[in-house]
């Protein structure tokens, strides 16, 4: 822990304290409103222009791992900054044009841009993150064209990956949404954007192309979503066990979410099939949870979860059994805050406890026990394999992760998030290479305007 680490934490801590003292306390804790910032809303009928954005700072400490590798043998700290500026123009309450600029930077890291090709998760100088037109064609039909963020429900199927400094999934897409009293149905086609500091504006990937429908069925005792996603790439360079070929991956499934008194529950299931190069796809993803809120001070909420992404039990049979996560994010609470794991060849058993001593303050504790689904398949970081033992002799136990976080929103324009997390490796990691206990510390401040 060098001096730069202390400066990172000091900077992230002083900024919100200073702003809160200067603005919130000076106004006797009155939240900032539109009336305080009259320039945010410019109305000239039939035009209505809104201007806003956010600035985020996050200091991180990575001990014995980083975004690319586990077991690094060193500790590193760095500071991330992200600035977003939004322009939202509405015409006749029917036509909307939205543009969002983003500037993402990293300070004090040993990585540089050449370490991340083609997509950079940390750095992308001022670029166009979103730019779309949204048209209410008639009362029940909405059309959105252009560069846009796409996320649904729990973010496991489509998620923006917004925890990452540049954001993982933004799309050049066409999206049509139909609303009525029974359903909200979204049909879309698009390709995701590659954050690249050497290119302006960023371009979308050459493939794959996503075709999807995500539909919410209303007026039921619980929330029910059904979805279908086609991931297609005809370049012919998708590598399977039996050789190269095209990609045609179908993901079909459902999601439920509901409450009953103090109980809450949810589940997401995905069946995946098609062709991966010369291989047949046969995979699945499952995420379940059951929670209970106690009628006690601090409103304790206890939740148990089981998450399973299938693995490949035979690396030579021409069948791809590894679930690929569709287009989901890997943010924060989904598979552990340290981002050591993803929804591929994974079994996750976890227990979470949330405490809310005040409306503006909450604490969260999470225990995760991770194993491989199939012993002969790999341990997957988000989007890439980390280690593999095709013999299966190293077992399936990955290890234990504990995450302790807090969330504080003293006023509506200021958000403070911090935490300490550690990971203790299990048998598989111990037998396949370096196996240190890893730690991660972060402190984040986000200011909205």
Describe this structure as you would to a colleague:
The protein is 6% helix and 57% strand. It has two helices and 22 strands. It has helices spanning 3-24, 427-432, and strands spanning 41-44, 47-65, 70-91, 95-107, 124-138, 141-148, 171-179, 183-192, 209-217, 223-240, 243-260, 263-276, 279-293, 301-309, 319-320, 346-358, 361-372, 378-381, 384-388, 397-411, 414-425, 438-448. The strands form two sheets. It has an 18-stranded antiparallel barrel. Strands 18-19 form a two-stranded antiparallel sheet. The radius of gyration is 23 Å and the shape is globular.
List keywords for this structure.
22 strands, 449 residues, mainly beta, single chain, 2 helices, two-stranded antiparallel sheet
Helix share bin = under 10%
| Biggest sheet descriptor | 18 strands, antiparallel, barrel
Overall strand count: 22
How much of the sequence lies in strands comes to over 45%
- The multimeric state of the shown protein is single chain
Radius of gyration in whole Å, from Cα? Answer: 23 Å
Low-confidence stretches: 25-38
Number of helices: 2
Mean pLDDT: 91
Order of helices and strands: HEEEEEEEEEEEEEEEEEEEEEHE
**Structural class, please?**
mainly beta
End-to-end C-alpha gap: 34 Å
Shape: globular
Structure, briefly:
With 449 residues, the chain is mainly beta.
How are the secondary structure elements laid out?
Layout: H1 3-24, E1 41-44, E2 47-65, E3 70-91, E4 95-107, E5 124-138, E6 141-148, E7 171-179, E8 183-192, E9 209-217, E10 223-240, E11 243-260, E12 263-276, E13 279-293, E14 301-309, E15 319-320, E16 346-358, E17 361-372, E18 378-381, E19 384-388, E20 397-411, E21 414-425, H2 427-432, E22 438-448
Parallel strand pairs: 13-15
Antiparallel strand pairs: 1-2, 2-3, 2-22, 3-4, 4-5, 5-6, 6-7, 7-8, 8-9, 9-10, 10-11, 11-12, 12-13, 13-14, 14-16, 16-17, 17-20, 18-19, 20-21, 21-22
């Amino acid at each position: 822990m060098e001096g730069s680490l202390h400066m990172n934490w000091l900077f992230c801590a002083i900024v919100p304290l200073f702003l809160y003292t200067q603005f919130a306390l000076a106004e006797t804790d009155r939240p900032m409103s539109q009336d305080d910032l009259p320039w945010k809303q410019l109305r000239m009928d039939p035009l209505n222009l809104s201007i806003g954005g956010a600035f985020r700072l996050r200091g991180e400490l990575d001990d014995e791992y980083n975004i690319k590798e586990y077991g690094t043998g060193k500790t590193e700290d760095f500071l991330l900054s992200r600035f977003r500026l939004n322009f939202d123009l509405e015409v006749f309450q029917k036509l909307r044009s939205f543009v969002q600029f983003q500037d993402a930077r990293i300070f004090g890291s040993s990585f540089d841009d050449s370490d991340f090709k083609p997509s950079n998760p940390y750095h992308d100088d001022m670029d166009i993150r979103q730019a779309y037109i949204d048209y209410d064609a008639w009362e029940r039909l909405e059309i959105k064209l252009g560069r846009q963020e796409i996320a649904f429900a729990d973010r496991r199927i489509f998620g923006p990956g917004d925890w990452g400094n540049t954001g993982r999934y933004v799309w050049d897409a066409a999206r049509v949404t139909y609303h009525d009293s029974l359903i909200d149905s979204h049909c879309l086609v698009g390709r995701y954007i590659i954050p690249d500091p050497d290119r302006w504006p960023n371009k979308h990937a050459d493939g794959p192309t996503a075709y999807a429908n995500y539909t919410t069925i209303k007026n039921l005792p619980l929330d029910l979503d059904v979805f279908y996603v086609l991931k297609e790439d005809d370049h012919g360079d998708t590598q399977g066990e039996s050789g190269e070929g095209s990609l045609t991956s179908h993901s079909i499934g459902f999601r439920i979410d509901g409450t009953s008194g103090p109980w809450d529950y949810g589940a997401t299931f995905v069946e995946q099939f098609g062709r991966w190069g010369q291989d047949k796809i046969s995979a699945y993803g499952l995420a379940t949870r059951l929670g209970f809120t106690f009628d006690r001070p601090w409103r304790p909420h206890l939740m148990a979860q089981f998450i399973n992404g299938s693995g490949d039990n035979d690396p030579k049979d021409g069948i791809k059994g590894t679930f690929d996560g569709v287009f989901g994010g890997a943010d924060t609470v989904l598979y552990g805050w340290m981002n050591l794991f993803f929804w591929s060849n994974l079994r996750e058993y976890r227990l979470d406890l949330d405490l809310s001593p005040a409306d503006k303050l909450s604490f969260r504790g999470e225990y995760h026990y991770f194993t491989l689904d199939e012993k002969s398949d790999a341990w997957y970081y988000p989007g890439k394999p980390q280690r593999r033992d095709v013999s299966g002799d190293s077992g399936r136990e990955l290890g234990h992760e504990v995450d302790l976080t807090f969330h504080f929103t003293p006023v509506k324009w200021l958000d403070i998030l911090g935490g300490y997390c550690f990971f203790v490796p299990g048998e598989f990691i111990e037998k396949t290479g370096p196996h240190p206990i890893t730690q991660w510390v972060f402190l984040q401040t986000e200011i909205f305007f």
